[in-house]
Amino acid sequence: MRKRRFFYMGIIIVCFLLLALSLSGLLEYTSYIKKEDQPLLKKIIDESSKRKQRLTQKSDIKDITQEIYGLYLPNYDKEGREVSVIRGAYTVFLKNRIYKITKPEIEFLSTGNENNNQPGNIVITSDFGEIYIETNKGFLYGNVITRLEEDFKIYTDDLKYLPDEKIINTDGFVTIKSEGMEITGSGFEISLTDSKAWVKDDPEMEVKSNHDDFFLFPGKEATASNFKSQTAIANGNVDENIFIRSSGELVFENEKRLITFHDNVRVSKGKSTIFADKLTISFGSSMENVKNVIASGNVLASDGTKTAKGESLSWDSEKQVAILDDDPVAEFFDDKVSIAAARIKFFKDQGRMDVPVGGQLITTVSVGSKKSDGQDGNKEIMSILPSSGKNQSYESITITWSGRMSFQQDENQAIFEEDVVVNKKGSKLYCGELIVTFDDENEGMQKLEATRDVLFIEKKGDSLREARGEKMVWFSKGNYIELYGSPLASVKDGEKQISAPKISFSEDENKMFAEGKGNLLVKTHTKKEEDSEFIDINWNEKMVYNGKNKTAIFYEMVNTVKGEEKLDCDRLDVLFFDKDKIKKITALGNVYIESPGLENTEGVGTLLVWDFSENLAVLTGDPLAELRRSGARTFSEKIYFDMNSKRVHWEGKPHWQIYAEQ
Known about the structure:
lipopolysaccharide transport protein A fold; 7% helix; 41-stranded mixed sheet; mainly beta
């Protein structure tokens, strides 16, 4: 708020304290003047003016004990300095009991000390005033105006000074005006014992807006309803005034430097509104600066698109932070994002949202909405795991955490810490830390990056896919995942398990891409279930798996082990009978097979096809395949390895080379 607006609220109490003292002192001064031969007058008034002034008083002439024209009564402090003056155009003393003053004017003189933020002279005027000797009660009534400098005025129909209760009050309507601010209500009261002031009923404050006003109203840049714009809650809007209303009283405590609105408080600015049971505004010692603002009790704040709910919503002016609190949780949400936590902080200058405790975030994310241009991930991966081309779809994501969450606007990222769990339809992600990056273009979630003890569980039909690693990245456009390990990440998909430094897989297309040295452990398909064995495939470069076609391809120095049989090749193509068991493998380039169960037979060629349902492998070469056994080498077009019958035979005209033992 503008400086000095509420500085005057403290001056209000100070000046009325002086008013009470002056009204009490008026009795002594008037008695003194009555004894003077020539009373002290502000100026000489002619007889015509005297008659006009007398007509303003309806008292009977015989009731008048004393008349004073041009009343001028100064009041001094202990050092003898003049601190206030009471003036009156015409004053009568009735029946030795009541002083009635026409056009009274009470002026409190400035000390002239600008360093103490003292305003200029304070002047109170009204049409009439009365002092009762027996009770010391004083009244001002008829167009009562209190002026503090040129831009601060208080308007009331009357003011009463009640010495026994030590209060000054009015039951009527009050209006307090200054440059950029106006307060209205009914029943104005000031307590002289504890320096408090009240507007008793239906107070309303209107404040001219500026950029640094209240923390709860978003600026023009925050109209978009996305998660990024949530931190813009702290920005101001200079186009509309702020209104504060309540059904209870407004209380100003001078010593505590507090203004409090009670009961059904409503703060509004354009489409932005705050409802609360109580609103407290705290000021610095000089009353020039707002220290903090606290809305408490059933708080509901909304700007038309975003809503905050909690038990308390506060603003710290020095730290430029707004804090939303509740037990068990406060809520902050719009049409795309919902946050629930015991405490939520909004940092204005830093453009940051911070949740220092555990909480929950729910948002809607667009998946597979656009064909990726490769900017959101690896181009090779996107060629292997292309988007399905399905229509844009929206899915709900729920993120919970036990540590803290922060959102940095300039980086467009949210960070979640400790025991993070992400729930998406059909899948769940566990990790120690999660970074969410948002997309400016479509105002949605661009990617999730999970680190520290990552576990991802996804339901695929009747089975589960379980992925573990040190880092996992999910891209919304392609709807695919990159999993990193240190040294290896692993994916258990049904009964097959894949390990590699990096594994990427598509949620829509049932495809997988493993990079670097890796391993696949899977069972073979046989005619009899009891004959099925595990097969261990290792490779050096990469693996590409296509669940739709039931194929997998392994590259560079591929090594395959099934029981006692071992197979080495440059490339291995795998055909699955179903998603979990291998039906057939095809080895290409520099093929070497070793089978100790077939009399330590070895085979060398360029192509081997192994059908696991028949447990038969066929080796060919370019031009001939080679069979090595018992010191002999046989070359033929095709060599058959029958694992069931433990026989090896060949096709085509063979020739032999026999090596004698040295």
